[in-house]
Each structure stands twice: as C-alpha cells, then as structure tokens.
Amino acid sequence: MADDRGSGLALARVADPLERLFVRCHRDELVALADVLRVAHEGVGMDLVAHNLARATRRLARHGLANAVFGKGEGPPWEEALAGLVAHPVGYDEVEEAELEVVRDAEATRWAALPAEARHALWTQLGLTGQPPDDGDAAMVQARAELGRGFGYLLTQASTRLFAPRRLPLLLLLAMIPFVGCILRPILVMVGIASAAYALRADKERLTVVVFHVARLRQVVLRRITVGLVGSPSTGKDAGIRALFGIDSGNISPVAGSTRTVNIQRVPGATALYVVNTPGLGDVVQSVTDEARQVLRHIDVYLYVVNAEGGVQARELADYQACLASGKPVLALVNKVDLLRPRDKDRYLADARAKLGAPEEDFLPVAFDPMPELSPAPIGLEQVRAWLGRTLVELGKDPAEIEGLGGAARPA
C-alpha cells in the first residue's frame, strides 16, 4: 500500500509547473502519457519519470522538423505551447482553462463525425440525459452549462484519443544526407517543403493528444477525492459513511463481519468524491478486484475507526500502521464513545491514543450512531469534517470539490 507518488520534499524543489503536476500523480496514471511520448516508466523513479515527461511534453511545441531530425532541446513553457493551439495568449493562471479549451474544441470538431449512437454514449458518460444536440459546439456549451464545475473532470475522463505517430517520409530523410541531397535536391525541394509542413501538422496533432492526457491528469489531481474508511468489522464504518456523507449503504449491522469486502461509492451530488469502506488493509486487499485495488492505491486520506467497546487490538494497530505507511494523512477515530462511562472516558481515550501512537491533532472521539437516550445526534461530526477540509486543501484539492463533503469546513 505504499504511495507511489513523489514525496513532499521532491515536490517542493520542483520549479516547472508541468513537472509539479506529474509528481502529484500516481505512477499508473502516467502510463498512458508515457507510452504516447515513449518515455520509460518501468523501474524508473517517479521523480525522474515526472521530469522526463515534462521535458518530452514541452519539446513537442518546438518546430516539427527540428524535433524529427535533431530531437533536442527543452521546448517552451507549457503556457506558450498551449497558446499555439488556442491561438491566444495564455497566462500562468489560465493553463487549466486553456487545456479544457483544446479538449472542448477537439471534441466539438469530432462530434459531427460520430455516429448518433456514439454521441449518445458519450453524452451518457458525461452523466447527461436526453437527446444530445447534433452540433458539436452546441453540445459542449450545453454540457458545460449542465455539469457546472464538474464539466472539465467528466469531459477529460470520457474523452479518448488514439495516437498513431507520424514519421518523416523517406525521401526527405535521404535529402538530408549531404551527397544524396546535392544530387537529388532539384527534384526533392518540393517534397521537402511538403514534408516539412506534414511534420509540423503531425507534431501539432501529437501535441493535441498530449494536451488531452495532461488535462485529464490535472482534473484528477485537482478534483478527485477518495476518502478511505478502514477498521475491523462492527467498528461503525457504515454508520460513519451515513453520518458524514449521507450514504446509506443498507449494511449498518451490529453483527461482526457484516462488511467482508471493499465497498466503493461516489458521494451523491459530488463530481469526483469517493468513499471506500474496507475492513482492513491486510488479506482483503489481496482478494479484491484489480479495479478495487487501483482505487485503494488512490485513496487521498484515511479515517481509521476503532470500536470504543473493544479497545485497540493487535490487528487494529497493524492496519492503522499500514495506513500510516501509505504516506497519506490518517485520522484515528474512536467510535461509540457514548457507551463509555463518563469517569472512564478520558482514561480510555488516552490509552487508545497511546497504543496507536496517534498525534493529538489526528485523533478524535466520535459516535456515528449513538444510543438515542445517550445522545440525540451523532457526536464529533463537525470536528471530522473540519479535519477533512483542512487536510484536503493542504493536499492541493480544489476547494469547490471539498464542498461535496456535506458540511466539511470551508477553507478560509
């Protein structure tokens, strides 16, 4: 369960904004872009993968013929590369919108060539209902109006591009050999001009494909939030999901072992806020599907739940430490504190925190589903939401997405 992203220290010393984006991604999220750019990623450190991807991405904005023949140079800043595609200046703070403009315009152009069934399928993928417009520009305008802040994330996740690299024609490459070029130059001059234009167009197409990948990664880094609730059976994770996120899993049960598998749900009304419920990070992780395992790797923060009635057991300590070892923020929650005797509560909480080794700021007592005669409402929800709000903002998530936490503290 080790986090495969760049460390905070590595991120702090990265100056290039494009490289900073790649450092914040997970390794498996970068594979598609690395394959397009032919950048090695297997067995290579994440810092180096991010650096090489940023360099290869910027180089695509150079002269197409120079790229093909010499293949050297760092290329311009990413803002300049985008400006060449959208045909207007792009400032540092306008990069995200410029990327979405490239994606939106390409999808609008492609729209007319899609069969009606394919248009409807893409429309459905975006979460939209009804008959999509026939005109691509009208479709994108309507999608943005209906999806609001979720438009960029959903569009970049639904959009796909096939990449077929173009190569310079053999005649042009022969003309670059000195002796052959002298003999054939009168014949090949027009071929050379046409081939140069061909190479320029090919590089522009490649750059557009890369923008699709970069835009997708940026939207994921900014907007996707995955909260993992971990704890032994009957600690109250389902009750916590219902109280914190308004999701009733129908699995709230006092019977031990009622949650046997990993459960992944998107919070209703949120663009990309996911909640993961898992009984632990041991054997269960090995038994889930590849899709579920990928989601587990992408958890942003952990809420580790301990049952106040049972205390901290050896297995619970091991799972809590596994959460910490992932490198993600972890909040330890002692649930069902309403059942503790008042005179024992402080002593029990101090003992539980000591056994876990949890920092005071990452440790909270809660009661997600208290006994009605002991408390009329859940205990500690606002403190949990405030911790989530602060932590996710520190991770660089879009504050608008955090509003989907249903009451999480808004960043100042």
Name some characteristics of this structure.
412 residues; alpha/beta; 53% helix; 8% strand; elongated; disordered N terminus; disordered C terminus
Structure description:
By secondary structure, the chain is an alpha/beta fold. It has two domains: 60-162 and 204-222, no CATH class; 225-405, Rossmann fold (3-Layer(aba) Sandwich), CATH 3.40.50.300. Helices cover 53% and strands 8% of the residues. It has 19 helices and six strands. The chain has helices at 8-12, 17-23, 27-37, 46-59, 64-69, 78-86, 95-111, 116-125, 136-147, 151-158, 170-175, 178-223, 237-245, 283-287, 290-297, 314-325, 342-356, 381-394, 399-402, and strands at 225-230, 263-266, 273-278, 301-307, 330-335, 363-365. The chain has a six-stranded mixed beta sheet, sandwiched between helices. Helix 17 links the parallel strand 5 and strand 6 (363-365). Helix 3 packs antiparallel against helix 12 (178-223), helix 7 crosses helix 9 (136-147) and helix 7 crosses helix 12. The longest helix has 46 residues, at 178-223. The radius of gyration is 26 Å and the shape is elongated. 36% of the residues are buried.
